[in-house]
Amino acid sequence: MTAAVTRSRSGRNGLAQVVRAEWTKFRTVRGWVIGTVAAALMLVLFAALTGAGSVQHGAPRVPVGPGGEPVTDSFYFVHRPLAGDGSITVSVSALRSSIPRGLADLRPGVVPWSKAGLIIKQSTRQGSPYAAIMVTGGHGVRMQDDYVGDTAGLPGPVSAASPRWLRLDRSGDAITGRASADGTHWTTVGTVHVSGLGPTAQGGLFVASPPSVHGMGTSGSVSTAVFDDLRVQGSWAGGDWAGDQVGPESPSFSGYPPNTSGSVTGSAGRFTVTGAGDIAPAVRVTLPTGGTLGEILTGTFAALIAVIVVGALFITTEYRKKLIHVTLAASPKRIRVLVAKATVLGAVTFVAGLAGAAVAVRLGERLARANGVYIFPVTSSTELRVELGVAALLATASIIALSVGAVLRHSAGAVTTVIVAIVLPYILVAIPFMPASVANWLTRVTPAAAFAVQQTLVRYHQVSGVYTPYEGYYPLGPWAGLAVLAGYAVVSLAVAAVLLRRRDA
Amino acid sequence: MPRRCQIPGRNQVAAAATGLEPGTAYNRRHESVSNPEPAAVSAPGIVVAGLRKRYGATLALDGMSFTVRPGRVTGFVGPNGAGKSTTMRVILGLDAVEEGTALIEGRPYHGLRHPLNHVGSLLDASALHPGRSARHHLLWLAHSQGLPARRVDQVIEQVGLTSAARRKAGGYSLGMRQRLGIAAALLGDPPVIMLDEPFNGMDPDGIIWMRGFLRSLAAEGRAVLVSSHLMSEVQDTADHLVVVGRGRAIADAGVADLIAAASRDRVALRTTAGRHATRVLTHAGATVAPTGRDTIAVSGLPADRIVTLLSESAVPFSEVSAHRATLEEVYLELTREAVEFHAATSGEVVR
Amino acid sequence: MRSALHAEWTKVRTVAGPLWLLLGAIAATVALSAGATSVVTCTSAGCGGDPTRLSLIGVILGQAPVAVLAVLIISGEFGSGMIRTTLTAAPRRITVLAAKAVTLTGLVSAAGTVAVLGSLLTGWLILPGHGVTAARGHSALSLADGPTLRAAVGSVLYLILIALLSLGVATAVRDSAAGIGIVLGLLYLFPILSQTIGGPHWQRLLQQIGPMNAGLTVQATTDLHDLPIGPWAGLGVTAGWAAAALLAGGLLLRTGDA
């Protein structure tokens, strides 16, 4: 008699009942429950594999800047101690870079972010705080501090005909950078506060030459700068200028091109300095050994296949076994049935995905760190975003599979269509010779855009890198990428709804 | 009734199927046809011996044994889940058994080179590709046996599917699918025919046609095994019955023998003075049981003795007759113990 | 075997699905190849790739309809129950599987040849317009060129092996959705895993054992010494996968109840 009692409530809230019915259907088919649990386990399993599979014991430590981010801190430094306040001035009349074109074939080239100038740094320890003013290969005069800070100064390249005068003034923690085109008229580029410089800092000339990016690849470059008219005032220690390579052994420094090395020559205020490396935040190409959450969550692809199979079967089985007739006899409002199915499937997949991702991220990070692998740091809110995003990605994909299944009424066809639509663009993106423009286009308009929810890497305008989806840099933001997939879900659900209403069951 | 016109009469069917006059012994004809396999004279028909099979904890077959002889329709009856379909799948080599053998013309199914020339079967009429037409379905089957396409058209005509043969099978009614399944079973003109629940989904016309058809197949000398869970479906068709329950044959006998056995020496008595009659007959040593409002069944006394006793005691009665059990009664009595699932439980073992 | 083959061939040609899937495989292969070759950009440093391989890249999409066809050819029968009819007609189950494999091989080799030739043709037409010319050290695509011929023939063989792999998997799991899911997982997960899993040793290993990565090395015509596995050896790996899948499918078909 309870059935009759329950039914009296049905008029008002029919959807809840259909949802409940669909939930009962879902949980009573063992294969679907297993598939969903398997999806969560895939995330964990592949995280464990990724974490345990890479071993970097004994690798040099990744230098970390004052802000906690990984940095490249490898450059040629011509320095003297500065025990207090003081200033330093120099002119730069040349900055030339060379890029190898093969073994022992060094050719002149432009390295946009090659750097030559003045720097005051806490110490020669990698990752220590600093402020610097410099001329660059393609971005004019810049004032930079603590790896991430960057301010533009005078534009234009430097040459013997058009040299640049640079000046740094230290007053306590405040360092002011100035530049001039003639040595008399100075403009202030910026004043920065560098905390932790300490009583005795190191100051002097530096040359850095980050890897040159061409297409999808990079090659180490080397740059040589000609400095003139070096003058210091204030609490500088006496003695000679010492030339040192900062951070010669570092995961974020690939070393000098063959047959080159850092050097300093000259005296009496005129120096020629050759250097390689960079003083900047590390990005993927400069820190290839670093791991990301996206890599730990590689299992997303396997999980995706599992949830797509379950999602498609959730509707196509009904057609194959003619169960749809029973379903529609029980709830004649067909759209409501579709919505209920999508709700149940999406919710179940989301929960399984979230559980899997949460465990996977923690396990993967732990295993990787235990193996000496450096993971690009993320804030806890970013980590939560990645986990929620993966769960949402899986849930949305399962709803797309459900919709395509309702349209095609054929499990194999639906499964293939959805897997190919979501996974194949990602594979194409990863093809080495795929131009960045195409890769970016693919990750903007195809369902693979949703993998942006996994991105945790930050791109820096002051670092030339390969900012492609393959390297972990997506053209769309995390939620925007997911929105693209959601758009596909909405469209496919709408098509399914229209066809479900229009066609015979 | 237009469909009626498409159904050939029993004798025409027989003639079409064999090319011989109805009633001609099938076995002889079969041996005379050039056939790559040596004719199995030792054990024609189907011999099933001691099949035992388990699905998990369920004992599906528990020593199933019976024989299907040529020239007669053998009814294979039993409640749902008694093991009929499983036995048929085992005979066809589809399911493996832990113990026992199932032989067709003395050989296991796997040993038959062109099996459809030896046994035609229909298990599940809806097991079709919905996008393929009936003709094409039969065509691939024919090709698998090296039979010509001509044979396909013959069987299509035989089962009365000609007008629908080129339509997609997905749109067929259950009755049409049954006919298509029968056509597939007839394709190789086999001496053994095995049909699982062929009456399912058939309309009354179809049922009448099916009965006649089965009888004609047996009349041609074929061994015909027909399963059903309803005795009424086979009682007018079968000559011989194998009654199964809980995975074993609980009776394997001729229909007449079964009825005789069940009837025993009971006498049906119609009287308005049931209580009086009971007292008189019990006193004389008979066993009496009421069977209806005015009827009682008497056993232990011959009919003439009963008449004498009742007349002597002045008990009024209107009828005394030898009781003849119906097949339904036989079936119910035999399977009473063997029924695994009573009405109260709704589950059914599917395989 | 001959009649089993005849029956399978009749089955395939009497429904519309296989034809459409094969046409779909051809269209998908050529379309992706055309798309990929038309976005090639050449810099002074070169065109950064292997023109033959790029022209044949459509195979990674075209293999999907091929896999669907192969899966459906057996799991469709399991789904409808028609497999019982098939096995009743031909009780030697391995013969049935072999007949299906041979039929598939025939169909896929025909469609694969068309798809591969079509892809090479689009590459031949499109690539010179994007600067992939002799001036940059790339000769025009030609089947007279040994490595290109090997890439073309190998691609057709690769598609056949993918079909056989799919057939084996589907025979083992007996369900079309699960079957195609497993097949596409095997194909597409290895390349993704090999990118993300740490350590060059693991990456190389994954590229050597993945049925798609390894098999498609047969398309390579340049930088052969940099390949994780040799072209024919790679195709051999795919063949190993196909053989293993068919073996597993065959054993399960033999022992399981139908």
Global morphology of chain A: elongated
Q: What is the β-strand count of chain A?
A: 17
Mean pLDDT of chain A: 88
Radius of gyration of chain A: 30 Å
Q: What is the count of helical runs of chain A? A: 11
The CA-CA distance between the termini of chain A, in Å, is: 32 Å
* Beta-strand content estimate of chain C: under 5%
**Percent helix among the residues of chain C?**
over 70%
User: Cα distance, first to last residue of chain C?
Assistant: 20 Å
Number of helices of chain C: 11
pLDDT averaged residue by residue of chain C: 87
Question: What structural class do the secondary elements of chain A suggest?
Answer: alpha+beta
**Largest pleated sheet of chain A:** 15 strands, antiparallel
Word description of this protein:
The complex is a heterotrimer of chains A (505), B (351) and C (258). Chain A has 505 residues and is an alpha+beta fold. Chain A is 39% helix and 26% strand. Chain A has 11 helices and 17 strands. Chain A has a 15-stranded antiparallel sheet that branches. In chain A, a hairpin with an 8-residue loop joins strand 3 and strand 4. In chain A, helix 5 packs parallel to helix 8 and helix 8 (380-408) packs across helix 9. Chain B is built from 13 helices and 14 strands. In chain B, the strands form 3 sheets. A 6-stranded mixed sheet of chain B has the order 6-7-8-3-9-10, sandwiched between helices. A 4-stranded antiparallel sheet of chain B has the order 2-1-4-5, with helices on one face. A 4-stranded antiparallel sheet of chain B has the order 12-13-11-14, covered by helices on one side. In chain B, helix 2 packs across helix 8 (204-219), helix 5 (134-144) packs across helix 6 and helix 6 (149-159) packs across helix 7. Chain C has 258 residues and is mostly helical. Chain C has one domain (2-255). Chain C contains 11 helices and no strands. The model of chain C has no long low-confidence stretch (mean pLDDT 87). At the A-C interface, helix 3, helix 5 and helix 9 of A face helix 4 and helix 8 of C.
